[in-house]
Design a protein that fits this description.
By secondary structure, the chain is an all-alpha fold. The protein is built from 13 helices and 2 strands, in the order ααααααααααββααα. Bound molecules: fe (ii) ion (2 copies). One fe (ii) ion binds next to helix 4 and helix 7.
Length: 332
């Protein structure tokens, strides 16, 4: 039976819309004020849609590119257990990328457009993945600090105003929590090992501490995109506040681990009880953002190569889907 007519709702859609843009905007604002989610079919301002596409796609790209610095260590993990754990973690990051590309697609952009923007260098991903993972201790420190900073950034996103993004973040955050713990556990094991192993951990901490703090983005006074994002409920907590939460949570973990953090100015503020850090070298941050980090070129070329090498898988999946559709049609 030809049933397309059953999919067309009667009522509202047949009647011409009489609402003005101002009315739609007022409804959108009212939803935000009530704390309701904005869903894909809801009216939304164009700038809200574009901001979300930019943020969610950058986030998706970061998950996918983020697989590269760790993926290279899967074959070099020191035990079978560590190999399994790292494999599961890197696979999780692929899953995060897929949820996020799907969430971005609900805003009317295609997966191909997003991938093309990444591969052409037009779209950014998190600069942290342009640093090299030089030793096995880097894998632990990436889990502890980089995934730890990611959790701090992402937990408020579970309450962001766009429904598909917020829901994707709930599962992502649970998995990130496992990532952070496996990194810390790896480091605890190394710190109980030899003098050389402890030195390897300290060296990795020295290299990743400042870049991890930069993951929260520029200071609030210099963060150009934050105003609208705060107004629209996409961003709930400012860059500096999130960075502070991360520092306060991480310093005691460093003490328990027995490593020092490479900041001579790090101290507790007697008045607030918060840990304060020394000045961040933002010239390094912008250098890496602007493509001059140690691994920018390598990461992008590896990503493009992986996409090209995987073309046959995508083609095979499409061919299989077509054959299955044909078989199902014949059988029906
Ligand atoms: Fe992730
Ligand atoms: Fe992660």
């Amino acid at each position: 039976m030809y049933t397309q007519a059953m999919d067309i709702p009667s009522g509202d859609r047949d009647e011409p819309s009489v609402k003005s843009d101002a009315q739609y905007e007022a409804e959108f604002e009212a939803k935000l004020a009530r704390g309701d989610f904005i869903e894909p079919k809801d009216w939304m301002p164009e700038r809200y849609r574009k901001t979300l596409i930019r943020q969610i796609s950058q986030h998706a790209h970061s998950e996918i590119v983020g697989m590269l610095p760790e993926g290279g260590w899967i074959t070099r993990a020191p035990t079978l257990e560590r190999k399994c754990i790292l494999l599961a973690k890197v696979q999780d990051e692929a899953g995060h990328g897929m949820y996020l590309y799907s969430a971005a697609e609900t805003l009317g952009v295609s997966r191909d457009e997003l991938i093309e923007a990444l591969h052409s260098g037009k779209a950014k991903y998190s600069s942290i993945f342009n640093y090299p993972t030089k030793t096995w201790a880097d894998i632990g420190v990436v889990g502890w600090l980089v995934d730890g900073a990611a959790i701090m950034n992402q937990i408020p996103l579970t309450r962001c105003s766009y429904g598909p993004y917020a829901r994707a973040m709930i599962r992502v955050c649970k998995e990130e929590s496992f990532h952070q713990r496996q990194g810390y556990d790896l480091l605890l094991t190394l710190m109980k090992g030899s003098e050389d192993q402890r030195a390897m951990v300290q060296d990795a901490v020295n290299r990743w501490w400042w870049p991890s703090l930069m993951m929260f983005g520029p200071h609030d006074s210099e963060s150009t995109n934050s105003g609208d994002s705060m107004k629209w409920g996409i961003k709930r907590i400012s860059n500096d506040e999130l960075r502070q939460k991360f520092v306060d949570a991480t310093v005691p973990q460093a003490q328990l681990l027995g490593v020092s953090l490479p900041d001579p100015d790090l101290k507790v503020d007697g008045a607030t009880g918060h840990w304060t850090v020394g000045p961040i070298d933002w010239s390094e941050f912008w250098n890496v953002v602007n493509g001059k980090g140690e691994c920018n070129e390598e990461r992008l070329s590896d990503r493009v190569k992986a996409w090209e090498d995987g073309a046959w898988v995508r083609e095979a999946a499409l061919a299989h889907a077509q054959k299955k559709r044909h078989r199902d049609c014949v059988a029906a």
